[in-house]
Each structure stands twice: as structure tokens, then as C-alpha cells.
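Input (structure):
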């Protein structure tokens, strides 16, 4: 094996080890469409009339791939939200990333054919870090989904972690526990996802809360209970979200204060350091999973006002509102 390949592989393996430092990553949204219409969809797929752009075009893809190639070190490039595998160039994009220093994570509704999934496995090899298959009970045949999961688990690369998730509602709780037990017997990890309502995590009836108490990852519990307002966060510096038109934001809270510019127009710039969070509630599981939030740092008004003076962030009303919020805390 050539030396460069070894180095890339070593860096990739280091990323997969349990890290306590920030894990560098990008969430790249290459489409805003989906072939499913789940009742709880946070991407509002139930309302097909809402404005949709479709798929990232060729120019945007090339520019974003160029920007990704220029990033220092190895980053996790995550595809999720809506259904990325529907993009006609999805496999080509994965091939380009696999040939770079970076790795790939995919969150999918698992509706792709086995043939397409096998091609993905072959193209990415050890560069496919994670595949998260979401089971949506109202949209898919459960038995077929379970069979496909078992098949995928046997043909995937041993470096790829495979997890099945499901958004839990009061109504589907009983069914999910049975599915979880079935997958468990096959050695496939199943994780409950907490339902979000208007961007916030919901609380379930007592019996469900009790059942999931020890089955939620620590990060989900943290996200549900805490506000990170004023805390320093590496998003914008070592993590960012790119929409299908090349606009980049520090995190999933795609607000003006987290805008990093547009990659196609050449206005994109990462922050040079962690910056304070201005959100009352964080809904980005990856911010905790990737160790991006500096929980131990004290909130600091000087850091907040410095951040609010940033050219993309500057807004007088936001400034007043944020300082008032800090004082009232
Ligand atoms: S599969 Fe995901 S993106 Fe598609 S409708 Fe369901 S929840 Fe929304
Ligand atoms: S909302 Fe979450 S991810 Fe975004 S800046 Fe705040 S803590 Fe970081």
C-alpha cells in the first residue's frame, strides 16, 4: 500500500476512535426533497407545496467539492435530512469524497435498492464511516426493512458502523420495542430518536420516559434538558452545514447569525475559533456527539459582543436582544 494511503487510513481510524476533542465535520444537504411523507417530518415533506429547489446543480457540487478538498486534515462529510440518495449524482459525489482525505456518513430512509447500496459500499470502502437507516413505519414495509438491514449488516465494510433509528411517538412505542428486540438479536444497534415539535424535543408519558431512560445516548438527554446559550461552540470553525445552493451556516439553526457566506459566490469563510452560541435551545445532536460545545467554559459577555460584531452576524436588534437575554439569565 502506498504511504499516502496508509496515512489517510490512519487518520480515518483515529477519527473513529472515541475522541474527546472536537471532530471536524460538514453536513452537506444536496437536496431538499424526499420520496417519503412522514407525519413528523421536520423538513416539512408533508407539505409538498412549500418551496423546494430540488437538487444541488453541477456548479454548486463542483465548487463545494473544491472547498472540501481544501480543508485541512480529515473531515466527516455527512449526508442527511431529506433523502440525499435521490440525487442523480449521489454516488459520483461519494466517489470524489472517498478519493480525498475525508470520510462519509449517511443518514437515509433506506429506500434505495440493494444494488445502489452495494455500489455505495464498493465505492466508499473504508471511507464510509457511518450509515444510519431511519425506519418510518407509515412509509415502509417493516419486514422488508428488517431483512434489508440484516443483509446490509453482512455485506457492509467492517469499518462502517451501521445503526437503525426511528422517531418515537406515543403511538408507535409498542411496535418499536418489538422491532428493537428483533434487530438486537441480529446484532444490529437500534436507537430511538426523540420527536421534535416546533424545533424542540418533546416529553413522553411516564411509562415511555422510564423505558427510554437508559436507552438514550447521553447527548440526547443533554440536548433535551440544557440551554447552551452563551457557551462557546466549535460550529462555524470545525463544523458547518451547507445547503443545496452553497449557503453555509455554522449549524442546523440556519439563522442569519450563523451564516458563513456562500461557497459558489466565493463569500464563504469559516470562523477561526469557537464562538458563543446564541440559541436558547440546541437541536443539533452532532454538536454534542462531535464534542463541539465547550460546556466547561463560562459564558462571557465580551465574547458574545465580539461575536455579534462579526460582519455576517451584525444586526442591532439581535445585539440588543442577546445582551438582554444574557443579563436576565
Ligand atoms: S424520510 Fe425523513 S426527510 Fe423523508 S419525509 Fe420522512 S422524516 Fe422527512
Ligand atoms: S445551537 Fe447547538 S450547534 Fe448551534 S451554536 Fe448553539 S450549541 Fe452549537
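Output (sequence):
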Amino acid at each position: 500500500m502506498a504511504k499516502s494511503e496508509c496515512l489517510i487510513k490512519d487518520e480515518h481510524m483515529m477519527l473513529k476512535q472515541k475522541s474527546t476533542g472536537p471532530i471536524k465535520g460538514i453536513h452537506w444537504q444536496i437536496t431538499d426533497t424526499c420520496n417519503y411523507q412522514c407525519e413528523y417530518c421536520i423538513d416539512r415533506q408533508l407539505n409538498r407545496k412549500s418551496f423546494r429547489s430540488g437538487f444541488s446543480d453541477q456548479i454548486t457540487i463542483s465548487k463545494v467539492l473544491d472547498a472540501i478538498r481544501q480543508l485541512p486534515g480529515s473531515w466527516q462529510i455527512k449526508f442527511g435530512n431529506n433523502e440525499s440518495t435521490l440525487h442523480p449524482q449521489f454516488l459520483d459525489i461519494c466517489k470524489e469524497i472517498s478519493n480525498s482525505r475525508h470520510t462519509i456518513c449517511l443518514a437515509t430512509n433506506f429506500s434505495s435498492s440493494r444494488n445502489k447500496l452495494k455500489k455505495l459500499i464498493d465505492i466508499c470502502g473504508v471511507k464510509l464511516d457511518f450509515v444510519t437507516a431511519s425506519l418510518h413505519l407509515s412509509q415502509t414495509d417493516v419486514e422488508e426493512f428488517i431483512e434489508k438491514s440484516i443483509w446490509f449488516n453482512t455485506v457492509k465494510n467492517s469499518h462502517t458502523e451501521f445503526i437503525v433509528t426511528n422517531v418515537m411517538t406515543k403511538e408507535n412505542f409498542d411496535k418499536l420495542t418489538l422491532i428493537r428486540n428483533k434487530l438486537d438479536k441480529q446484532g444490529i444497534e437500534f436507537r430511538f430518536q426523540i420527536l421534535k415539535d416546533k424545533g424542540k424535543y418533546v416529553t413522553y408519558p411516564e411509562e415511555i420516559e422510564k423505558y427510554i431512560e437508559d436507552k438514550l445516548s447521553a447527548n440526547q438527554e443533554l440536548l433535551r434538558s440544557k440551554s447552551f446559550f452563551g457557551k462557546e461552540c466549535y460550529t462555524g470553525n470545525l463544523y458547518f452545514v451547507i445547503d443545496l445552493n452553497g449557503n453555509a451556516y455554522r449549524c442546523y439553526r440556519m439563522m442569519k447569525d450563523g451564516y458563513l457566506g456562500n461557497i459558489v459566490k466565493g463569500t464563504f469563510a469559516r470562523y477561526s475559533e469557537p464562538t458563543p452560541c446564541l440559541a436558547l435551545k440546541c437541536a443539533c445532536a452532532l454538536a454534542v456527539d462531535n464534542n463541539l460545545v465547550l460546556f466547561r467554559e463560562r459564558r462571557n459577555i465580551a465574547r458574545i459582543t465580539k461575536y455579534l460584531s462579526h460582519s455576517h452576524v451584525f444586526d442591532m436588534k439581535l445585539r440588543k436582544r442577546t445582551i438582554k437575554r444574557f443579563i436576565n439569565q
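Notes: The first strand starts at residue 25 and ends at 28. Confidence is low (pLDDT under 50) at residues 1-17.
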